Amino acid sequence: MSISWQRSVNPKPAILVLPPGVDSLDEAHAAIEMWEHYSHKTLDDTQRLTVEVMMAESRGRWAARTTGREEPRQNGKGEELEVVELWGIVQRAEAILHTAHELTTVSSAHQRMTAIVSGHPDLRRRVRKVLNGIGQQLIELTNDGVIAYRTRTNGGGRGLDDISRLVIDEAQHAKPEQLASSTPILLANPNPQMNFAGTGAITGVSDWWWELRKRALGKEPGAFGYVGHTAETVSLTADGHVLQIPIDPFDRKLWFDANPALHAGRGEIEFFEEQLRTLGPALFAREHLGVWDPEPAGVGSVIGSDTWDALRDTESTIVSHRTWSVSTSLDRSWSSFGTCGRRSDGLLHVDATKRGKGTAWVVDFAREVYAGSHLPIRIHKSGPEGAFIAPLRERGVEVDEVSSAEVAAATGQFIDACNAGELRHLGQASLDIALKGAVLRTSADGAALWSQRNSSVEITALMACTVAAGGVPALVPMPAIF
Prior knowledge:
Layout: E1 15-17, H1 26-39, H2 45-55, E2 57-58, E3 61-62, E4 66-70, H3 77-91, E5 95-100, H4 103-118, H5 121-124, E6 127-131, E7 137-141, E8 146-151, E9 165-168, H6 176-182, E10 193-198, H7 207-217, E11 224-228, E12 234-236, E13 242-244, H8 252-258, H9 260-263, H10 269-289, H11 305-310, E14 320-328, E15 334-342, E16 348-357, H12 362-373, E17 377-380, H13 389-394, E18 399-402, H14 404-419, E19 423-424, H15 429-436, E20 438-442, E21 448-452, H16 460-469
Parallel strand pairs: 4-10, 4-11, 5-8, 5-9, 9-10, 16-19, 17-18
Antiparallel strand pairs: 1-11, 2-3, 6-7, 7-8, 12-13, 14-15, 15-16, 20-21
Helix pairs in contact: 1-2, 1-3, 2-3, 14-16
C-alpha cells in the first residue's frame, strides 16, 4: 500500500526517520482536522509531518513505539503534541502522562489543552473534571480519557498504571532515573507510545537525549520515528560517534533552515537578530539553530590530561624555525597570539604569547612584534581573524594566508605530536583551559578541526598555537653515515 507522507515540507528536516511498516495515516489526518477545528489554528507543513510520524499505523498499532522531535524553541512542538493528545483522550480514551522539566512548561501545556476542551460545546460536555492544583493538573473526560501533567522527578510516574502514552517535553533535560520511574507504566497497555520533544543538547545535562539522536542517525532504529530541524549537519561514524559540522551562526539562511516558524510567518527576523546580540553566537546557535553541545562520548579532552601534563617544560625555549599566528573567537570577544618552533633537541615548542579581550589591540600588537622579528604572521583566512589580513598589510606586516585545509592538517599534526611526545609547552593556563574545553568537529570535506565544547570556554590560544605549529617544517632525518 502506498502511503503519501506530507511532502511539501519547507524547511526540510535535517534528520528524518519514518516509522517502518506503515499502512495508514488516516488517524493522523483526522486528528489534525479535529485539532484545527477546535483550536481555530492551522498547522504548518512540518507540524503535519511530525504528527504523521507520531500517529502512523501498522496493522492497527502505532508504527513507532518511540518518537523524537528536535527543534529550536518557539517553533510549535507543543501544538504537535496537542494534536496527538487531544485525539487520544477524545477518540481513543487514552490515559496520557505529559511531563516536562519546568513547572511553567507543564502549566502552560495544561492551560492550552483546558482552553481547547472548554472552548466548544461539543468538547465541553465531555469533560468530567479539570484539576488545576500544582502537581495535580489533570483533564478527565466522560469516556475515561485522561491526561495528567507533571514535572519530572525520580518518582514522577510511580503510582500510575495503564498509561498508553508518555510525553516527555523538554527532553534535553530528561534523566535516565526519571524515565525509569515513568516508562514501566506503559507495559500494561497493548499499544503504548513514548513521544520525546526537545531542543539542543546541553553538556552535562542531555546524555540521554543524545542517545535518542544517535538512534535516529543509525541504520536500524527499529519501531521508531524522528523529525529533527537543526542548522548543523550531523552523521554517525562507523564506531558510533557523531560528526557535527561547524556552522556560521551569522548565516541567515541557516536561521530559516532550523526554524519552520520563520517560513510559516510565525516568527520575525528582528527577534532573531536581537537574540544573537543578547546571547552571543554560541548560545544563539544552541537555542535558536538547534546546534547541540558535543555528545557525552566526546566530552573528554582530545588530548588526555595525563598526556598534556607530561609535555610541560617550564624551561623550554625555541631555537629555530619560529612561527606565529593570531586567532579570534567567533563573537570577537577574545583574541590570542601563539608561537611555535623547534627546540635544540628538535621537539616542537608552543607558547601562548598573549591573550586579551576583543580585537582593538590586535593590529597594534602584531605590528610591534613584526617590527622586532620581521617574521610573517600566519592567519587562517576563512576564520574570524581573517578580518585582520588587510589592516595588517596596510601597516606593513607580512601575512601568510592559511587555508582551512592547512588548518585541518595542522590540527592533526598538533594532536599527533602531543600523543607521540614530540611537543613541549610551558604549562600556561590559557592553553590548559582551552585544550580541556576543545573538541573536534568535522568539516564538510571530512577534516577534523578544533571547536569549543560550549559557550563558557574559548579556545583562541589553542587555535593560534595550532596554526603556528602548522608552519614549522618537518624534521628531515640525517642521512646515515657508513
